[in-house]
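Supplementary Text 2. Reproducibility record for the structural model of the 269-residue chain.

All settings were left at their defaults, and a single model was retained for analysis rather than an ensemble. We include the record here because the model underlies the residue-level annotations in Supplementary Table 4.
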Amino acid sequence: MITYSATLDVPETTATLLTNLLIAERLRCGTPVGSRAASARTQAILVLRWFREDTDMKVLAADAWVSLATGYRYLHEGINVLAAQAPDLHQVLEAGQAAGWTHVTVDGTLIATDRCRVPNPETGHDLWYSGKHSAHGGNVQVIGDPTGFPVAVSEVEPGSTHDLAAARRTGFLGALYAAAALLGLPTLADKGYDGAGAGIHTPTKGRGLHPDSVTRNELISCLRAPAERGNALLKMRWKALRRIRLCPWRIGAIAKAALVLTIAERPIR
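Retained model, structure tokens:
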């Protein structure tokens, strides 16, 4: 075997943040000092390598000198402590209104998974298969600020779920209604959210539109264009989100954990 040194493209402050969260979790669980196979620092590096590089768990476990099963337990624990720090959407919208945001954006993204055929109990169709993307995955709703930076992500819905239905089931749609009605903070979305309701502005569908409708569509498209940046920030920065090889129901927690890591790095990105 060959031993070599490597550098992880993650700020020291991010590693320290996760290490402190893991230490707090061990104290909460009453874990005796020195009883774990690896230190909180080693566990934090394992988790960050998985998120940043999508490193195989066999490699991560071997580098941390733990078993494969322990490596997976460490990973899930790291995901959980990070996801628990994810911002609440209602609080985010209130803070955004106080900061002078003119609007927010909502966009759905499919986080791919390995093939996992599960029949839909109602229709019999493949629950996790997205016909739109021709791939298996989970639907996650991403809320962005006016600059396109992601500020909140939803729980996961199976890939066969339409964006509008996913936003409704996860409670995001209700929060956006409240933001529009009570805070005066509208939401911009694409045509997939057509008919979402008051406060959710989408382009007008159809051909031969009136010039006013054409201008409105162009304005909405220009304002919400940065929303694509939010999805790119999450998926391109954290390679693990490009294809999840864990249980697909974990996608929501993984996306929230990635959001916390992204927010932690925001001052230097």
